[in-house]
Every structure is written in C-alpha cells, then in structure tokens.
Amino acid sequence: SPPLFAATAVACRRRALPRAVEAVPGESCTGEKVVVVGATGYIGKAVVRESVRRGYATTAVVRDAAKAAGEPKFEGARIATADVCDPPALGAAGSPFEKGAVDVVISCLASRSGSKKDSFAIDYQATLNCLDAARAAGARHFVLLSAFCVKSAERKDPYALQFQYAKMEFEAKLREQTEMTYSIVRPTAFFKSVSGQLEVVNSGAPFVYFDLGEGRCATCNPISEADLAAALVDTVADKSKENALWNLGGPDDGLSMKQQGEMVAEVLGKEEAKLLAVPIGLFDVIIRGLQGGADLALRASRFDAWPEGAPEWLVKGLASGLAGLAQSLEDSAEFGRIGRYYAVEDMLTTDPADKYGRTTLRQHYERIAVEGQEYDPYTTMFAPNK
C-alpha cells in the first residue's frame, strides 16, 4: 500500500549506504529505488521481500495486481501492473519504468516451460524489453538472475538447451550496452528443484535417481530462495559485483542425487532409504522417439503431392494439424532433454567465493517435512490437494 511504500522509502534513506563504503552482505542498502520484474515467481517473491527488508523503496511488477495484493511477501512493496512483453507500455507515464522512477532493476524473469518459443519470448525478449525500458528511464544498475548451466550454451555443448541459449544471448546484450552497470548471477539450483520427491518418499515409495554408470550420479550444491534473494540484492551495493558474473551455490559441499535420497529418508525417519536407480539411457530412448515423431510430423505437414482435386480446406487443415503436432512433440523432446541435462550435469560450485548463505539442504528438508511445500507442476511428483 502507499503508506507502507512511503515508510519503506523513509527507512531506506535512514539506512542508506554511501557508495564508497564497503558493502555488508545481507545488510547494505544504497537508498535507491528498486524495481523487480518476474516478481511473482518463486525467486522473485523472495527478492521483493528481501529488498523491502533491507529498506529499499521496492516496486514489484506483476500482471495481476488484485491477485498480487494478497501475497504476504509483497508487504511493504508497491505493486505495479505492467506487461513485460509490451515495450511501449513499460515506459509509459505512471509505469514502473517511467523516466526517473527506477534506479535499479532486478530481473527474475524466466520461462515456465523451457520450450524454445517460451524461452526466447521471456528469457531473451521480455528481459531485453525491461533492459531497454530501464535504460530509457535512466536506471543505474541491472541485476540478472541467470543460470549456472548457461555455460553449456557458451561451450556449444551438443546437449545445450534452448533456455540456456536464450539466457546467453540476453547476457550478451546486457554486456554490450554501456548506459548501465550490471551484475549477472548464475545459481546452481534452487532448493525447490531438489525437493520434489519428499512426499512420495514419505508415502513409502522409493527415491528415484539416474544412474550414470559405475555408481555415478549428478552432484549439486543448491541454494535456498532466501539466500539467493539476499545475494541478488547484495549486488546493488557491492562494487565488486559491478559488470561481473557470479556463479553461486549454497553452503553445502556437493551432494549427489543418491545422497539427497538418503538424506530425505533420514529426515523423514525412515529405517532404511529406498532408492531406485534408473539407467540414464531411458531418457535417450524417450527423447529420440519424441524427436523422431516431431521430425516425421513436420515433413508430413510440408507434403505437397496431394491427389489432384483434393479440397483446399482439407489440405490446409491437415498441414496445420501436422505442424501443430510437430511443435508439440518438439517441445516434449526439449522437456526430455531438460530432464536428462539435470540428471547428468553437476550443478556445483567449489570456490568459497561462489558459495553463499547459511541454510543447508538438510535444514530445508527438515522444514518442509514439518510444514509441507507448495505444489509446483514442474518440480514436484505429488498431486496438489483438491
């Protein structure tokens, strides 16, 4: 609400940190106006809450203000409605990117599905729209929530994913511009992404992990949403993070998927951990089948040797239907590649400078074992309560 927003601004002025003073992790506030895009996402909500807690005058950019008004993590923030896919609207009078209305942008935008279309629409184009709007508004600094796995697109790995390429291409645009400083933060993984099996294990089912052969499985040191939010907000005041890339993991040493399964069982008080190792080759079979079907449907949609006299409406209808089927199968194959990628690749930081926060994965499991967790169709294996 406006009174809370005004109070936040006053608190920020009181606690403002001169730019010349060394930043203090988890505490510093520069006294600037912060706009958070992607605010309604898992990490975006945490960033809004952390920014307000520090004392920043914070604006959460949302699509549905009425729905966002009931979000507890937005308390103390101003809620502004804007469509990040509509560039002219972003900089209009009264918008969150009105000239002089923003000093710092923190982008937590990310496609939900990871498909090529969604990735380039959100991870690249919508984020670029916000960058352009921030530059036009005279903002000083742009903070990007990216991903540790973008390194695969940089290396041009044959198994690199579409959303990684979309993020990589936006990062290049961010580096090219000279009007603003920037910070790129690439987290390894979120706690949410390694918590999806807790409920099924609690019900007696085994913890499923992917066997890479010779007893190997993927390893990671994920970071909590609160710790990641604090790190993102830290970059606003930390001069050492200006025009820099920060790979970031949580405080744990690397935990393999098998170790995560054993930890979940222990936290839930199971006498013995039930683990089910699935050969990674299963992913390859599924992906090849889906991609093969997509390629076949696409070729069929372009077939032009129809019998003479075939009705035009029938030809166009079949071509359109087959093209739609090809796209659907292509997206499903990409989802399979995403699953395979995280089953194979280590998401791990080892340099102490690239580890942040205090909350361990065990502490997270202990908390959600008692409190439960919000259902997410992309990361959880249990059905939502009806």
Walk me through the structure.
This protein has helices spanning 2-15, 42-54, 65-68, 87-90, 116-137, 150-155, 162-176, 198-202, 225-237, 257-267, 281-301, 312-344, 361-371, and strands at 33-37, 57-62, 78-81, 104-107, 141-145, 181-187, 207-211, 219-220, 244-248, 255-256, 275-279. By secondary structure, the protein is α/β, with parallel strands linked by helices. A seven-stranded parallel beta sheet has the order 3-2-1-4-5-6-9, sandwiched between helices. It has a two-stranded parallel sheet with strand order 7-11. Helix 2 (42-54) packs across helix 9. The chain is globular, with a radius of gyration of 23 Å. It starts with a helix and ends in a 15-residue tail after the last helix. The relative contact order is 0.12. Residues 1-18 and 378-386 have low confidence and may be disordered.
Q: Sketch the major β-sheet.
A: 7 strands, parallel
Average pLDDT number: 90
Q: Choose one word for the global shape.
A: globular
Distance between the termini: 32 Å
Strand order in space, largest sheet: 3-2-1-4-5-6-9
Q: Fraction of residues in helices? A: 40-55%
Low-confidence stretches: 1-18, 378-386
Please give the number of β-strands: 11
From the helix content, strand content and strand pairing, which structural class follows? alpha/beta
Radius of gyration: 23 Å
Strand percent estimate: 5-15%
**N to C succession of SSEs:** HEHEHEHEHEHHEHEEHEEHEHHH
Total helical segments: 13
Blueprint (SSEs and pairs):
Layout: H1 2-15, E1 33-37, H2 42-54, E2 57-62, H3 65-68, E3 78-81, H4 87-90, E4 104-107, H5 116-137, E5 141-145, H6 150-155, H7 162-176, E6 181-187, H8 198-202, E7 207-211, E8 219-220, H9 225-237, E9 244-248, E10 255-256, H10 257-267, E11 275-279, H11 281-301, H12 312-344, H13 361-371
Parallel strand pairs: 1-2, 1-4, 2-3, 4-5, 5-6, 6-9, 7-11
Antiparallel strand pairs: 8-10
